[in-house]
Amino acid sequence: xxxxxxxxxxxxxxFVGAGQRAPTAPRSxxxxxxxxxxxxxxxxxxxxxxxxxxxxxxxxxERLHGESWEMVDTVLRGNKASTPEAIIRARYTAxxxxxxxxxxxxxxxxxxNKKEVYxxxxxxxxxxxxDPMKVAEQLFFGGNDFDILRDVESYEIVDATDTEVExxxxxxxxxxxxxxxxxxxxxxxxxxxxxxDFQKWE
Length: 202
Fold this sequence. Notes:
Number of domains: 1
Mean pLDDT: 73
Helix content: 25-40%
Largest sheet: 4 strands, antiparallel
CATH architecture: Roll
Strand order of the largest sheet: 1-2-3-4
Strand content: 15-25%
CATH topology: Nuclear Transport Factor 2, Chain: A
Number of helices: 7
Number of strands: 4
CATH class: Alpha Beta
Order of helices and strands: HHHHHHHEEEE
Oligomer: single chain
Low-confidence stretches: 3-54
């Protein structure tokens, strides 16, 4: 998902997996998961109760991924993704629930400021205010449509191989992000997004 924007190797996975207690937070706010959680507010809240874990139910994952929910659940339980498709689906789940840290962590880091990459995702997802200079620049010169990814509606895998995944993300605005990503094997996550073959709005 928007691999060109993101690239951080970071925190270990925050979802625990399906089967126990689902988060009660509304979808418009980040999930409350493990102590190294999704947002600064969530992280602070969870650290007060380090033994408490939050999970996603099978039903929640089925709503996002249908019959493929189990491959996502495996990743969200802290295991390595067995295929590129599994990590891409997990990234969509993170996008849906506004997890900037996971999106940044599961894209390959080729230099750059790690905090800045996380900040970019946080701005895109509406977790923090946009930089006023970036807003002004977008007004005068036009800009990308990635802000509308904070309200996604559905997800479709178009094609998946052992090195690439092509997918479409439909947003509530009606626009669709059509993207094909390259993935590399990774010792921590199984796979991470390494680059973008193509990316366009439809």
